[in-house]
Amino acid sequence: MTKISxxxxxxxxxxxxxxxxxxxxxxLTRDILSLDSSLLDGFKNILSDYAQEMSAHHTRNMxxxxxxxxxxxxxxAITTDSIxxxxxxxxxxxxxxxxxxxxxxxxxxxxxxxxxSLEVVKLLETFNIKGNKKGKSVANxxxxxxxxxxxxxxxxxSELNELWKQNxxxxxxxxxxxALIITARxxxxxxxxxxxxxxxxxxxxxxxIPRVKQRHSNFRKSFRKLAVTEDLYLIIRxxxxxxxxxxxxxxxxTLPFEQRKLIPIFMSxxxxxxxxxxxxxxxxxxxxxxxxxQEMKKLMVEFNNAQHAISERTGKVIYVxxxxxxxxxxxxxxxxxxxxxxxxxxxxxxxxxxxxxxxxEI
Length: 362
Description:
The protein is mainly alpha-helical.
């Protein structure tokens, strides 16, 4: 029962661990495996479909939510009582758990797999469940997790430049933080960048940034072209050249132009050890050489451990994460009177998921 995940990774539906992409693997835990055989088969079938058609992140979320649901079943079937008992245990803050699984269960029934009855589907259709509330730290202008003030952002930029000049952070860290500040994109997008995404058009500079939040979008299949500064373009370009040198030194061979274009901007140095002249082309075509999310997090930790920029609101060192740069960009655009639709496009985000008021002030 070998299947191919949406990101091109093979997994066996009968195994307990499914590797869906470079960052995400899911495990069928004991509570799942102890289900009645017909219910278990139905669940494996629909989860396998999701793994092949949807994002790995969404598939993993469906597994997590289903595990919450089966705590209220007898292990033989998902019944209307199971659904009602689970819903009764949820609060206003987490009723979105059921809402997120609603479509999964409906698709399960629609595809004819065992385990979900028409009665369960009809019950689910009567529910009007609010989605997950987002952006509390933004709405409250939290000085620790929300958008930063202009002065705080300027302090971080100054600190970043000084750390690089003093050789206290790696060039990869320097490039990553600059990319977060200027593009306001997610780490999961930046880690997919390749050298071919850098564009120079006379005196204008752009980066084609992969989109990642679309459930049916595969690895590097959808992009948005973003205008960037010359400084960021040159920083990322220099990092790409460094990565080329590392690969060529490791394999003892010069890469042809077509392969150079596929060099990851942010590269997994652990995976680099696996490549050779014979397989380097395969590694460059897929996501194998790209950094994992954990490796991207290490770059952020590197910066946080080194920087000492002080918040004007707390008097303490500013805590930095990638999300805060996105919050800051969105809030600043809102303060300038930019509409929510434009903000959503500039942040490469669905309109319905903007977590802040476009007129927010800090």
